[in-house]
């Protein structure tokens, strides 16, 4: 039999050779894993960039929509105000005309009373026009309210960056 020292040396050398071979395989496996992880990281970065670009585009679209809504709201408010002023002026004109006619009517003159009645019919037609304008005004106010609600919702959905100024209306 061989000596125990020789056996120990042979076993030690064998163990070293086997462990070196195992480590080399493990190193190759680790290198492959590193390359795979690096590739995956590059792909993920590309996906993140793509998503950032699409989010920026979406935010720009939403900002444009908000600007458009604000402009439409302003236009509707202006039209509504114009209609209100027109109604007030027409109402004043009718009141003035009625007062003038009432003062100029002698109590015994049937023809003038008939003119007042005719004026009442005219006033009824004007009143119907006033009703139409009032209805249009009500609809405009409702549309303004809807736009304000949409703007508030968009403001909640779009966290606007604090550094950029608000979009300018077109």
Structure report:
The chain is an all-alpha fold and 170 residues long. It has two domains: 1-52; 63-158. The protein is built from two helices and no strands. The radius of gyration is 43 Å and the shape is rod-shaped. The N and C termini lie far apart (101 Å). The mean pLDDT is 76.
Main traits of this protein?
mainly alpha
Write the layout of secondary structure elements.
Elements: H1 4-104, H2 110-157
Describe what is shown at a glance:
With 170 residues, this protein is mainly alpha-helical.
Uncertain ranges: none
Please, what is the average pLDDT? 76
Q: For the record, give the distance between the C-alpha atoms at the N and C termini, rounded to a whole number.
A: 101 Å
Tell me the fraction of residues in β-strands, as a range. under 5%
Q: What pattern of helices and strands is seen along the backbone? A: HH
The value of Rg in angstroms is 43 Å
Question: What is the number of E strands?
Answer: 0
Number of helices: 2
Helix content: over 70%
- Total separate domains: 2
Globally, the shape reads: rod-shaped
Main sheet: strands, sense, barrel: none
**Which structural class do the helices and strands define?**
mainly alpha
């Amino acid at each position: 039999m061989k000596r125990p020292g020789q056996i120990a040396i042979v076993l030690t050398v064998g163990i070293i050779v086997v462990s070196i071979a195992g480590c080399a395989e493990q190193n190759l496996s680790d290198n492959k894993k590193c390359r795979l992880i690096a590739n995956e990281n590059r792909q993920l970065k590309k996906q993140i960039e793509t998503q950032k670009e699409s989010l920026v585009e979406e935010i720009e679209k939403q900002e444009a929509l908000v600007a458009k809504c604000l402009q439409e709201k302003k236009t509707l408010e202006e039209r509504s105000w114009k209609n209100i002023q027109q109604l007030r002026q027409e109402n004043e004109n009718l009141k003035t005309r009625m007062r003038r006619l009432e003062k100029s009517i002698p109590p015994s003159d049937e023809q003038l009373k008939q003119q007042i009645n005719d004026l009442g019919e005219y006033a009824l037609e004007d009143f119907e026009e006033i009703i139409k304008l009032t209805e249009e005004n009500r609809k405009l106010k409702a549309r303004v309210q809807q736009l304000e609600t949409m703007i508030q919702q968009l403001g909640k959905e779009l966290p606007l960056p604090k550094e950029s100024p608000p979009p300018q209306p077109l």
